[in-house]
Amino acid sequence: MPATFLGTPLSLQRARVPSIDGRPDTDALVDRFGRVARDLRVSITEKCSLRCTYCMPAEGLPAIPRRDLLTADEIGRLVGLAWRELGVTEVRFTGGEPLLRNDLAEIFAKSAEAAPGIGIAMTTNGIGLDKRLPSLLEAGLQRVNVSLDTINREHFAALTRRDRLESVFAGIRAAHAAGIAPLKINAVLMRDTLHGAADLLAWAIDNDCRLRFIEQMPLDADALWRRENLVDAQELLDVLGTRFRLTQLVRDDPSSPAEEWQVDDGPHTVGIIASVTRSFCDACDRTRLTAEGTVRSCLFGDDELDLRGILRGGGSDAELAAAWRAAMWNKQAGHGISAEGFVPPARSMGAIGG
Ligand code: SAM
Ligand code: SF4
User: Fold this and answer.
1) 42-71: per-residue pLDDT in tens?
2) Rounded to an integer, what distance in angstroms lies between the CA atom of residue 211 and that of residue 205?
3) Residue 72: is its pLDDT beyond 80?
4) Does domain 3-352 have CATH number 3.20.20.70?
């Protein structure tokens, strides 16, 4: 039995578990707005090989002391718990750049072992993927998204503050060679690269990649995001429409944030995640773990719950599950970017995990 005080396990008190008033008696990660989280994002590092201006500061994020990062064993335990007890069906590893964790294969293997039915995916900038991919696939990795905003070397170097486009291409070639299909490419919409969007789409079609553009969210560490500078979905469609004939497809999965368009006569498509102008918060099915082991119920919600404290305090699976459920029950309604007085969250994207 865990130590208790006033009926609450001490490890939960340390983590300040929020109220669950009104919560139905269900194992699933439900919230007050009727949403159910089944898609887990796990950030595993704040380090990165790039410095994308919409994400990181030029000098990188402050280093997280090694002892504060969840270990491969701890991640495996939490992924297993999420899958077994909380109804989570997918886990995506992200960061920072997940390939910078030397124990990445171990993280995947422990997760696959603890949650044998879960789908394991990773979002990466692709740098170094060619060297790591065989061991990662063997460890249980199933799906890979590569982030790539432009195929123009100078624009890439300016946007990411690193001249490493060729390394990204090498990673993408390796993913293809390993049979990862479809290979999804994520591109953040920025004014400086918008004129290259049609070239990027043509390249994605030629290279059999599924391209998805994402509206930039106010999650840059430099806090330079301004609504009036946003390149929105409509502006992108206008640019792509000068080269391609685009036909919108019916969305078959309402929880998928991407709206899809068929390109010319198909079979290729292009997706747009209009996170700002056509928010999909109402259908959000995400729950997040930060690299330090806090549950973050929303990208824009700074009220995190310290699961690592419970875990390292000797908390049981039941305590961890109860705390995670309570954190998700209190998930906010939406990102609120368009609301008057909106304040961006304290953590930037690289410190949350996109
Ligand atoms: N380093 C890996 C990568 O770039 O794929 C994983 C971490 S990164 C934070 C995850 C995703 O978030 C990337 O696709 C990136 O483009 C996206 N992202 C970063 N900052 C963003 C922002 N301000 N708005 C929208 N997407 C952003
Ligand atoms: Fe690094 Fe990914 Fe952020 Fe770019 S988007 S700086 S690659 S974490």
Assistant:
1) 999 999 999 999 999 999 999 999 999 999
2) 8
3) yes
4) yes
